[in-house]
């Protein structure tokens, strides 16, 4: 099996080596969650994982690579375990994902702080920093491609241009939150506001009008925004499902892990059929209540 860690290809030739690698990442996540990245010692990590330090460096190259892969693996599992109502290429889909992701971040501060510490460090490997940026650019890519295909970007604004600004804004806001300059309850609004400001300034036509309307609704805490925000917030069961997926032991087997995830979801109040139906109803209410700028203008006329 071959995998790339921030552009550094790593080959694994046996199940035992793969199991050891997963154990290192699993222990790293636990240590980050318990004590934060500042207290993460390679010596202690290796002792807890039952491996030699040489094994860790052979597999990952550096502590920063371990931190980045451990957290990004969790992020991928989280994204695969949550329910989304709107497609990624739509404005509503992007806002929904930002609400979901950043409401999760407030519950996993240590993970977000770990990634931002690697990203903002002057000593970090450039390839590693680029890998962290790629997490954000990939999230925005379907939406930006849609804007480009529909000629929705302003003259001289390229897809690369707007994507770079969106990523920089997101990570700058997260960094301010990590160091305490933004309160937990304001993180979602600040990230979404920055996103909408950039989209409104970079687009034209209906795309610009829709971004401006969402921005107005957010800043004035209109019912359309508050309903949509509530619908999109991360559910405890979604958070727990991703946690179980990334921390499960290999020898437990897929069937046991799925059963554990289902039990945890039920106990944590996860998405039952009734819960998902409620979410869909809330989403419909939010998008129905919030009329498009064109329809609103027509009715006022």
Which architecture of the largest domain would the CATH scheme give at its second level?
A: Orthogonal Bundle
User: What is the CATH C level class of the largest domain, in words?
Assistant: Mainly Alpha
Q: What is the structural class?
A: mainly alpha
Largest sheet: 2 strands, antiparallel
Can you tell me the CATH topology of the largest domain?
Answer: Tetracycline Repressor, domain 2
Order of strands in the sheet with most strands: 1-2
User: Helices and strands, in N-to-C order?
Assistant: EEHHHHHHHHHHHHHHH
**Cα end-to-end separation:** 63 Å
Count of the separate structural domains: 2
The fraction of residues in strands falls at under 5%
- Categorize the overall geometry: elongated
The overall average pLDDT, rounded, is 78
What does this structure look like?
By secondary structure, the chain is mostly helical. It has 2 domains: 62 residues, Arc Repressor Mutant, subunit A, CATH 1.10.10.60; 149 residues, Orthogonal Bundle (Tetracycline Repressor, domain 2), CATH 1.10.357. It contains 15 helices and 2 strands. A two-stranded antiparallel sheet has the order 1-2. It is elongated, with a radius of gyration of 21 Å. It starts with a strand and ends with a helix. The N terminus and C terminus are likely disordered.
């Amino acid at each position: 099996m071959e995998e790339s860690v921030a552009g550094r290809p790593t080959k694994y030739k046996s199940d035992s080596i793969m199991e050891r690698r997963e154990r290192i990442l699993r222990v790293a996540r636990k240590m980050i969650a318990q004590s934060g990245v500042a207290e993460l010692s390679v010596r202690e990590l290796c002792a807890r994982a039952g491996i030699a330090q040489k094994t860790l460096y052979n597999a990952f190259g550096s502590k920063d690579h371990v931190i980045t892969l451990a957290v990004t693996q969790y992020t991928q599992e989280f994204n695969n375990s949550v329910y989304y109502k709107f497609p990624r290429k739509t404005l509503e889909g992007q806002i929904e994902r930002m609400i979901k992701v950043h409401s999760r971040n407030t519950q996993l501060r240590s993970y977000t702080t770990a990634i931002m510490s690697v990203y903002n460090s002057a000593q970090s490997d450039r390839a590693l920093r680029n890998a962290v940026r790629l997490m954000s650019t990939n999230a925005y890519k379907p939406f930006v491609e849609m804007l480009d295909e529909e000629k929705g970007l302003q003259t001289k604004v390229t897809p690369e241009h707007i994507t770079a600004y969106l990523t920089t804004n997101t990570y700058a806001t997260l960094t301010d939150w990590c160091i305490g300059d933004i309160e937990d309850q304001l993180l979602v609004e600040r990230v979404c506001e920055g996103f909408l400001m950039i989209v409104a300034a970079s687009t034209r036509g209906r795309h610009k009008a829709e971004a401006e309307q969402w921005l107005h609704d957010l800043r004035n805490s209109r019912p359309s925004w508050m309903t949509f925000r509530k619908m999109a917030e991360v559910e405890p069961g979604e958070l727990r499902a991703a946690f179980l997926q990334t921390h499960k032991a290999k020898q437990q087997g897929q069937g046991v892990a799925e059963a554990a995830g289902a039990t945890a979801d039920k106990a944590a109040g996860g998405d039952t059929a009734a819960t998902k139906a409620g979410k869909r109803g809330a989403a419909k209410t939010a998008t129905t209540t919030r009329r498009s700028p064109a329809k609103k203008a027509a009715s006022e006329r």
